[in-house]
Structure formats: structure tokens, C-alpha cells
Amino acid sequence: MVDIATRVYNHKWKIDPIVRSLIDTDFYKLLMCQSVFRNKRDTHVSFSLINRSTEIPLAELIDEGELREQLDHIRTLSLTRGESTWLRGNTFYGKRQMFRSDFMEWFENLRLPPYYLEKRDGQYELTFEGRWPEVMLWEIPALAVLMELRSRAVLETMGKFELQVLYARAMTKLWEKIERLRDLDRLRVADFGTRRRHSFLWQDWCVQAMFEGLGEKFVGTSNCLIAKNRDLEAIGTNAHELPMVYAALAETDAELRKAPYRVLADWHEEHEGNLRIILPDTYGTEGFLENAPDWLAGWTGIRIDSGDPATGAETAIRWWKSRGEDPRKKLIIFSDGLDADKISDLHRQFDGRAKISFGWGTLLTNDFRGLVSDDRLAPFSLVCKAVSANGRPTVKLSDNPNKAMGPAGEIARYKRVFGVGEQEALEVVV
Amino acid sequence: MVDIATRVYNHKWKIDPIVRSLIDTDFYKLLMCQSVFRNKRDTHVSFSLINRSTEIPLAELIDEGELREQLDHIRTLSLTRGESTWLRGNTFYGKRQMFRSDFMEWFENLRLPPYYLEKRDGQYELTFEGRWPEVMLWEIPALAVLMELRSRAVLETMGKFELQVLYARAMTKLWEKIERLRDLDRLRVADFGTRRRHSFLWQDWCVQAMFEGLGEKFVGTSNCLIAKNRDLEAIGTNAHELPMVYAALAETDAELRKAPYRVLADWHEEHEGNLRIILPDTYGTEGFLENAPDWLAGWTGIRIDSGDPATGAETAIRWWKSRGEDPRKKLIIFSDGLDADKISDLHRQFDGRAKISFGWGTLLTNDFRGLVSDDRLAPFSLVCKAVSANGRPTVKLSDNPNKAMGPAGEIARYKRVFGVGEQEALEVVV
After folding, report:
1. Rounded distance, CA A85 to CA A101, Å?
2. Which residue in A100, A247, B219, B378 has a CA-CA distance of 20 to 30 Å to B296?
3. What per-residue confidence (pLDDT) applies to B9?
4. What NCBIfam families does the record tag this protein with (chains A, B) (predicted)?
């Protein structure tokens, strides 16, 4: 029996919305948003979509009207009562009332600001401008919408059973990864795959499969909506946008040099324990750690998000030792371009030498490689980044020059200020 | 939204019935039943379950109470009005009113007769006794129930996502076969997989996937309920039980020798065109064809159901030629132990030399080989056969001694009467 009311209700949707909730976003976005709301509320920022996989002509694949409908729908969303209750009442990282009342009141009244969309050279130019705490919340839903519209464009031509077999293959593929990971003692892995997921429903499936297949080795998801619905831990700390904007706001080279530490000083005031995770690579990990104040060595851990991950982890371990810290008590979170094999390798390499944990993203929630002809469902490297703050361009160097961003002149200046020399260029797959 | 009424209704089932309709059976059973109803209505027969895969201890795997509940449920079934209308009004093999009114009236009032169930040596002894047209209708549902209860026993311990991945793998496996078959020009393949299916829902899925994936190359299903529900052709002609029972009823060796032809003479009176398909192997194909009356060479085709299929087809082609018939106008139906590779091979070998068609059974609807540990879902060779008629044992020789049945003394007698010499023993997989 079909539920008639459900069918009728579904027909009332003008579109099939991809993002249906303001908390269908990464947990760290909300943590950072609260921090920004407290410390940099009036900073004017601009975020832009950047498709690093230029061979994927997004503007040819995705209908502009459909994209506008999805983005417009997101602008109609506001926090529901249940979502607000969850954010206010739930325990995050063991702490109650992670989100302060003033922030929650602001968030409860938030609608996302306008977007600016144009087509150029087969790509979409999608930009968000306004106050930082508002604009920053566009990043994840904008990415999720573009990724899923691209999936839909490919799926549109497929038959019902062909589709079922496609998902059957994708399920099998993920399950085989889970079966391999299950054998790793002391594994800790979380879902970080919201932004570049194949689709919302698929991410939801992946998370549940991880939960059933890995048990306690699956520590949670970065996606707040899924964490809430599935009663899982919401996972995440902070990201590059904080040092990037703080750096752009610096008036002098001396201030610029201090900016990444200013970010963490603000963070230090707000958070403790497992939320004190250093993201060292924005302007080169080596220099960042070398010049870091001693109180940072006391932080819980470090997240390795670019460059060769094993090299990054060795650097961190060396640094902790040089500061008199015991690396075995420290947490290393790997979160860049992971897949089951890389997770296994890194786990074998570092298990016992530090506490380690994995934030598994795109190849968890969007590994459709090899499943359709011409690989038209393979994930690609789409990002949405802060590109300016109060009218000044932002810069990211990272530990991989292929992930660097910003105007060439500014990149050169940052490299000089942060003492970044030769870097190994690594292919950015996802 | 869940449909509350559906949930509540489902909770009212005391069991989850495997067979829910008297037409959840092979089409040829109904054709044969009508023929038996006309010609041998009062013959007393006994049908027995035979598990040729003795390494599968069915009575240890399947709970006796559950088996009884399923069999008891089948005894509560009667033809619904819609089913009756379909049988009376639908076109089968291009013919209207395939089922005569007197037969339909009898069928509409039918309930299946009692069953006799015992455990012995880890196996079930399941027997049906009574009038032939009633007892014969137990064969397919009895097999389907045992096959599906065995599947359920294995699936019971699996988690929700593990289960989903299991079916994902099975779907992928079938779809890859379909993709290979799709490339064969002039392919004609039907589903013959009711009796040894993994489950009803799985068979229904397989049939729909074949329909979408193969288009017109998929010619229909032997399962009447699925043919009705999915608006497909119901496929099938006749089976070994006719010559086996006719032979058992023979009073003398001379009558025995004529019995297989008597069956087809009765069939000749009732059916024409694509329903005139010879099943020659009950007592050895070679001798059967050699001694066949000339009118049989005029029949439309032949079904190869045991022995090496290519050899059987060559024998048929030679025989047609020796009788002045053009094999290219004849139909050869392969139906024994087929899988995609064998279908491809036979198609390449005989396409153009005769019209050919495939009845794909167990490895279409139950190929779960290699999908769980210890291969506990692999299909196995379960049959339900007429073992006696009016108190006399039946015998089947077939073209493969591993498929022979009956008391040793009777087998020897039949071999002598039908002039069957040395036969090649082939492994019976399914």
C-alpha cells in the first residue's frame, strides 16, 4: 500500500530540494560561526566557488534554472524548533551548552544572504558576500547542491533497474572498504563527506552503513542533521577560513605573521580538550610549528589536511618531542584525500606512536568512480572559499602548491612572510 | 511518512507467507494440469521432495514448525477472482481461452490436498498423495517454500546494512550477466526460475531487471503470478511428469515403450504451434527420437533438459534432417543448468542453425554463490517428483545418470525397454 498523503504531499514540492535544513552542514562551521560571531561579527567577506577540476564543465552539465531554484530554496530555510533544541541541549565533545544563548538567538533568526551567479567559460561563478558569520554558512550547502545537481544530471538518463544496480555497486564498494577497515584495531574514523557527497540520501546511507559495519570504530559524522537524526556524535573543530580571514585583515607583515596564532588564541579561550586541534598548514606546516608559542604544544592534537600525510605526521611528532610533549598522548587527525587503503596504511604506520583518527570525506560519500561509462559520476575537486575580507584578498598556501589560492603577488608576499620555500606538488584528486 | 494501516495490517500476519497465490507457480504446471484433468483425472499419484544436494541438511537448517506453517498457509489458498479472470481472459502463446471452462471451474474450487512431513537423517521427507491434477500443483510451491526458508535461515543473523549489501551484490551480479547477454543478436531468453528461487521478491526483481535490461530479448516468465502482475508473457509447455506417470501406468513392456508417445499424442490433440515442444530425454533422447512417429518431427521444437546441451541440440538437428525437416525452422529450447556464459556459448554455436531460446532457471533467480561466508546461500539441487502412480513406482532416466530416479530394478527394466546404453555422467549443480 502506498501512503496517499505522502504521495500527494511530495507532488506539492515545486522542486526536490537538496538541502532541507540549515544544520545539513558541517559541525565545525557552526563552531567557527560562533567564534566569528563573537570575535569578528562585522567583518565583510566574500566567498567564491572554485572548481579545481576544470575539465568538468559544470555550467554545461547543470541547468542554471535548477541551480537557482536550489539556492533560492536554501535561502528560505531557517532553524526549526527541533534543530534549535538539539543544538542548545545536546552534548558535543562531552560538553553541554556548547552554543551560547546569544549565538543561538542570532542563529534562530538567520536566513542566508543573497548569492551572485554567473556563467563563464563553461563554469559557474557563484559568489556570496556580506557579514562573515552569515556568508560562511553558504559554503557547505552551496557545494552540496552543486555536487548533487551534477549527480542528478548524470542519473537522469538511466533506467530504474540500471539505477538500482548503480547504487548496488556503490553500496558494495563502500561495504568492501568497511570490511577492510573493520580489522584495524583501535581505528577511529568519522564521516567528513558532506561537502562533496554524491547526494544527501547517499551520505545518510554511508553513515548508517559505517555505524553498522564499524561499530565503535565509527566515531561520528561532521553532518549535524545526520548526527541529530541518527543519534550520532557531531564531529569537527576548525578550518582554514579562520586563519585566511584573520591574515587578510592584518595591516602589516608583522601582524600577518601573528595572524594564524591569533586565531588559535581566540579558539583557546573558547574551547578545550578534543576541540583544541591545530590546523597548521594554511601557510606551511613547518614554519607554523617552528614559530608556534609554547601553549600551542599543549593542545590536544593536530589535523593534517594537505601535503604528504605521513610526512605531516612525522613533522608533528618531531615538533611535540622538541617541545617536551609525549606524542603518544597527542591526537593526529588525518583528513585529506583519504580512502580505505590510505587509512589502513596510515593507521599501521602511526598506531601506537600517537593517538590517531581519520576524517574520511569525498571517497566515503562520493566514490562512484568506475561505475558509469566515461566515469561521469567520479567525484571532483570543488571548493568554496573565503576570497576576500574587508576588501583584501585572502591567501592560502597549504602544504601542497596545487591547493594554494590567492593573487600571485600576495602568494609571494605570504611565502616570504611565512618563510615557505620549495614545496612538493601533489595531485589533488578530491 | 509510514502508511500506518499497512504497518498494522502487516502485523496481523501470523507468518510472512512465501507463497501467496495458487498461480505463483510455473505456467506449464497449469497446462499439464488441464491435460491431466482431461485425460487422467483419477490417477492416484504420490509426489516426493528429493534433495539431491545431500550435504545441505535441510531439516537442521529449517525449523519444522515454520515449514508446516508455510505449507498450511498454501493449503488455505484458492484462486482469486482476478487470477481466474486473467487465466480465462488472457492470451497465452497467442491463443485465447487456453484454459477450458470445465478446468477453470474445477481450479476455482481447488484447495491443495494434505501433505505428509517427517524428518529423516537431517532431511525432510515431504510427500503429497492424491489425485494427480491436485497433487501435481504442490511441486512448485513446495520447492519455493523450502528454498526460501533456507534463504531466510541464513539471512536471519545478518544486520540491516549487511543485508542491503548482500542484495546489492546479487543485483550487481545479475546485472553484469544481463549486460553480457544484451549483446547477443536474436537472443530469446525466459525466466524459468520459480522453483529454486532465492525468494519470491528476488525473482520478481530479477524478472523486472531482465525486462529493462534485455528488452525484447526477454520473452517472458514461467511464473504466472509475476506474468500477471508485470504484464509479461507466461512461458512453458510440458515436463517429465507426464511421460513418467504415463509410463508407470503401462501394463506391459510394449505399452511402456509407447507411453512417451502417448503423452505427446494427447498433447498434440490439445495444443499447436509453439506449445508443441518435445521433451525427449525422460528415457534417453537418442532412442526416443529414433523410434518417434513421423508426426512428431512436424512439431515446432524440442527442449533440451539434461545431458550435454550441445550434444542434445546436434542430435535434434540430425534427427530433423533425417526426417526431411529443415532445422532452421525448428525451435530448440535449452533449459538445463544455464548461466550467462553457457547461454552465450550455446547461442553462438546454434544461432542460425535453428531457432533457439533459453529457459534460464536457478542461476537467474538464485545465484547467491560466493556472497556469504561458507557459501551458505548457494543454490542447491532440490526437486519434487512424481514417485508413484496408481501404486507403481515411476522412473526417470534422463540423459544424465546423475538425474535418474526410481527403484534400481525398474531403472534396469526401463533401460532395457528403451534401449538406453552407456550415458555420460554430468555433475548436477542446480
Report:
1. 12
2. B219
3. 76
4. NAPRTase, PRK05321.1
